[in-house]
Amino acid sequence: MSHAQELRATGRVELTALRFNRGAGLKVLALHGWLDNAMSFAPLAAAWPEAEITALEFAGHGHSQHLPPGAWYHLIDYLDDISAGMTLMTEGCDLLLGHSLGGASATAFAAARPAQVPRMALIEALGPIAYAPEVATQALRTGLDERAALASKQLRLFESIEQAVAARLAANRMQPESARLLVERSLRVAGEGWCWASDPRLRVANPLRLSEAAIQNWIAAIECKVCLIAADHPPPYFTEATRQSRIACLRDSEQHILPGHHHLHMDDPQAVAAVLKQFV
């Protein structure tokens, strides 16, 4: 796997990043998915040596700091993390690359700060998850209830890294080697075992989401060319119908459907790298 240089960025908290293929000509800022970390892009970096990939870790993820007590995680606040990640790009950013949560955040950032995004590639995302208006009140109640209950919850403990990898595989359809890459950076020692290092607040249900109309308004404001890569086994929150209706809002785009599941950039990095090489 590609050697990575660990970096620090000062944002709302101290953020970490891993830089792969240091010195390569194409400069990429990469944003990982929910509960993932910078190692999400290690397989892609190995398959794409022409790209210097700076993989940022959002607050509460990977080795980045957690938010202070009383704070919660919202999509809009990840845009501050992206701005901090941009300061690591000493020669500028040629491509903003996002997977899942990272792709949703990149979508919002490109809409808000078009001058900073010359080109964007999204894997399994184009904007955040929308709530139908009729479930808004229930979502609000559920989110607040989960916030209130969080303090009484115990962290899940694992006897070994292998046990944690098995838990990740039970939650996501992905290759075991992909799960291990993520898990090894996602754990911390807890007594005689291990627990997740990510902030438990990340797992609280979002009490407030945008409507589909609002998300499509964001997407229509994106000025750069966009490459969308999606798996032919789409997750329930990013269906083919949603993808098609949103990509129709883009001014300049291309779409590629590849065999695989949500973490296809890890499970089949050669195929994803081939698309990205052609795109740039």
Can you characterise this structure?
With 280 residues, this protein is of the alpha/beta class. The chain has a single domain (4-131, 210-279), classed as Alpha/Beta hydrolase fold, catalytic domain (Rossmann fold, 3-Layer(aba) Sandwich). It has ten helices and ten strands. The protein has helices at residues 42-47, 75-86, 101-112, 136-150, 161-171, 176-186, 212-220, 240-247, 264-267, 269-279; strands spanning 4-10, 14-20, 26-31, 51-56, 95-99, 119-123, 187-190, 193-196, 225-231, 253-258. It has an eight-stranded mixed beta sheet, sandwiched between helices. Strands 7-8 form a two-stranded antiparallel ribbon. Strand 5, helix 3 (101-112) and strand 6 form a beta-alpha-beta unit. It is globular, with a radius of gyration of 18 Å. The mean pLDDT is 96.
